[in-house]
C-alpha cells in the first residue's frame, strides 16, 4: 500500500502539469497570434499558393492527376489544412502528410518538403526530432508498400531510402539548422545587451563614487571656509565701534555666507544622488521674490515684474527659473556694477518666460570666463527649455529663457555609457557561422551518401530493360532471332523473381521476362513484359505487374 501511495505522490505533479498543458498551449498560441505581422501573413499565403500550384493544380510535380473537379478541391484543402496544422503540431502534420501523399497517389512532394522543414524548425528537443524522424520513416515505408511499386534488391531499397532522405530528412535538417542558428544569434544579441546594461551599471556606480568624492571635498573645503566667514561676520556685527551702515553691510555679508552654505549643501545633495535633493524644493520660481529682495539689500537697483496666471510647474522647471534669475543678478552685479536690473517672470499660455536684463554699466565690465552661463544653458536644456544670452542694442545685457509647463524627455540627465545605447549594440559575428553546424553537416552527409550511392549503382549493370516500343512492334509469328537481336544484355534482374504474378507459360514454349521502361507511379507495381517462343516463332507476348517477393 505504501508503494502505491509513493507512486501516486510522484505522479501528482505530472498530473497537474498535464492538466495545465492545454491552458498553457492556448495561452502561448494566443500570444503568438497577437504578434502576427503583415509580412508573416503574406509569407504564409505565398507558401500556400506555391503548394497548390506544385501539388494540386496544375500540379507541376504531381505527375498523373486522377482527381478532377471537386476531388481536386478536396485534395487542395487537405494539403492546405496540413500546412496550417504545422503551426501548432508540426510532428503530427508531417506524419499525416507523409501518409496522405504516398497513399493518395497524387503529388504531395512539395507539401512534405515544406512540412519537413517546418518540423525541423519548430521541434526544439533533439529527442523529439529523432522520434519524429523514426515514426516518419515507418509511416513512409508502410505507405510505399501500399501504393508505390515495391522494389527489392539494392536498387529498390536504395530508391526507397533516397526518396525519404531527400524529401523528408534533408529539409528537416535544414529547418533544424535554421532554428539553431536563429536561437544562437538571439542568445548572442541578448548576451550583448546584458553586457551593455552591466557596463552601464558599473559606469553609473563609478560616476556616483566620483560625485560623492567631489561632494565630500566641497563639504570639507568650501563648507569650512564659508562657516568661518559666517562666524567672523557674526562676531564683527557685535563690535560696538561699527556704525549703522557698516553693521548693515556686515549683516548682508553674513547673510550671503549663510545662503552660500545652504546652496552648497544643495549642490552636495545633487552630487550625492542617493540623498534627497532639497535644493529644488526650496529654490523655486516663487523664491525669486526673496532673491530680488536680497539683491536690493546688497545695493543692487533691481525691479521684479510678474505677469500671467501662475500655474503648477515641474520641479526642474521651477528650479531652472530660479537659477536663471540668480545667474542674471550675479552677472549684473559682477559685470555691470551700479546699473539698474529688471527681472521678469511671465506665465505665457504655452510656456514660462524668465528674463533678466541690465542697463549699460557705468564702468568697464570685468572679463569673465563665462562658466556660469555654460552651466545655465545645460540646466535649461535638461528642463526642456531654450536659453538666449546676448547684448542689447542699448549696450546692456539680457538673459532670457523659455521653459515648458511639463516635464519633457530632455530632462533625462543620466548620460549614456560611452555614447552607446543598448539598441545600437551589435553582437559579435565571429561565432554565428558555427550555429547549428551539426544539423548542416548531417544534411551534407545525406546528400553525399545519396549521390555516392547512385554513382555506385549506376556503374553496375543492374537489370534487363526493354523499351516499350519493342514490345509494341512485336507481333505473334515474328521471327525469334530478329526479336532476340533487340533484347538487352546485362546481368540478372535485381527485382527478385519477376515471373511472379504472370500467367502460366504456354506448353513447350521458351519465355523471356524483361522490365519495361514504361513505368508509372500509379500502376501499383513494376511492369514486366514476357515473350514466349516456339519453333523459332513468337507465340505470345504479355504484360503483368510484379509486386515483389
Automatic annotation (TrEMBL):
GO terms for molecular function: kinase activity. Residues 210-274 form the Signal transduction histidine kinase subgroup 3 dimerisation and phosphoacceptor domain. It comes from Saccharothrix mutabilis subsp. mutabilis. PANTHER family: NITRATE/NITRITE SENSOR PROTEIN NARX-RELATED, NITRATE_NITRITE SENSOR PROTEIN NARQ. InterPro entries: HATPase_C_sf, HATPase_dom, Sensor_HK_TwoCompSys, Sig_transdc_His_kin_sub3_dim/P. Its EC number is 2.7.13.3. Residues 320-406 form the Histidine kinase/HSP90-like ATPase domain. It comes from the Bacteria. Pfam families: HATPase_c (PF02518), HisKA_3 (PF07730). Keywords: ATP-binding, Kinase, Membrane, Nucleotide-binding, Phosphoprotein, Transferase, Transmembrane, Transmembrane helix, Two-component regulatory system. This is histidine kinase. Gene3D superfamilies: 1.20.5.1930, Histidine kinase-like ATPase, C-terminal domain. It catalyses: ATP + protein L-histidine = ADP + protein N-phospho-L-histidine. The chain crosses the membrane at residues 41-60, 91-118, 130-149, 155-174, 434-457. CDD domains: HATPase_UhpB-NarQ-NarX-like (cd16917).
